[in-house]
Design brief:
five-stranded mixed β-sheet, 291 residues, Nucleotidyltransferase, domain 5, alpha+beta, four-stranded antiparallel β-sheet
Length: 291
């Protein structure tokens, strides 16, 4: 029988962390602060390394008029602040709102705008934009480790840029020159690596930079991938012949990722300049990782 007071995430759900689970783990600001304290300093919530005593001491949190977000060493009185050195430092915004903002940004497949974050949190646009900027640039970093090895890898390139506006005097060539070539490689059931390219011809070199040698690699028939069979088990699918899947040979996973990126730009961001395009994959890469 279903317990209405304790909803459980369905096993068929693609979500790895539902809203109800988030609310149970972080019901208020105090729970968020306690999580920071235990994660950064004290596993048991009571003992921590005191930098002044230079040994493990018992720490207590005392109520003060200033409502300080700190724990105090019972030996020397030294204070440890869980938010110090983080994006929450000296922020007057509730930790609960910070944590909810991170949940929204990492659980939305095609991204979320600062305006939507403003509406969800009930804060000003200036505050929402600042939170968005700090979470995106200080917490979300693209991994630099190579992918592949024991997992099959798909690689493909895409061109990011919309269609010319109606009535635009820009020629087709001028418009195409403004578009940005992007290379992507994804493990089947694993991680993704994405980077902007100077030209589509750089795809060959990007494969060698992000994929472990001797991995099983799947690409389309693009001539820029010729020669990869010397370092990889290279299998190709001929899209020109309208063949998209042949047994286990396909590039559907990476093409699904490009769909997420382009739908995110179209529906959420509307447009992304070449200057900021390299930062976009950080917002969508979690969406293709396995549950």
């Amino acid at each position: 029988m279903t317990d209405r007071n304790n909803p459980v995430r369905a096993t068929s759900s693609e979500s790895r962390y539902s809203l109800m689970e988030f609310m149970r783990d972080f019901p208020d600001d105090a729970a968020c602060l306690d999580w920071l304290w235990r994660t950064r300093f004290s596993e048991d919530g009571e003992h921590a390394e005191c930098p002044k005593c230079e040994q493990v001491r018992v720490f207590r949190r005392y109520q003060t008029m200033e409502r300080r977000q700190s724990w105090t060493c019972t030996g020397c009185g030294h204070h440890l602040h869980p938010t110090a050195g983080t994006i929450f430092h000296k922020s007057s915004t509730s930790l609960h709102l910070w944590f909810y903002a991170m949940y929204l940004m990492t659980s939305t497949r095609c991204g979320i705008s600062a305006k939507q974050l403003e509406r969800e949190l009930g804060v000003t646009y200036k505050t929402a934009w600042r939170m968005f900027h700090l979470i995106r640039h200080d917490l979300m970093e693209q991994d630099t480790d190579k992918i592949g090895g024991d997992k099959e890898v798909e690689a493909d390139e895409a061109v990011i840029g919309g269609q010319p506006r109606v009535g635009s005097k820009m020629t087709r060539k001028e418009h195409n020159d403004r578009k940005v070539s992007v290379f992507g490689a994804v493990e089947r059931g694993g991680q993704v690596r994405v980077t902007t390219m100077r030209s589509r011809g750089d795809a060959f070199h990007h494969v060698k930079q992000v994929v472990v040698p001797e991995s099983i690699l799947f690409t389309d028939e693009y001539s820029g991938y010729a020669g990869l069979q010397n370092k990889y088990t290279h299998k190709r699918i001929r899209h020109a012949d309208k063949v998209y899947v042949s047994g286990d040979v396909h590039t559907q996973t990476i093409e699904g990722f490009w769909s997420l990126v382009k739908n995110g730009i179209k529906g959420v961001y509307h447009a992304v300049s070449a200057k900021h395009l390299q930062g976009l994959p950080e917002r969508v890469r979690l969406a293709v990782q396995p549950p």
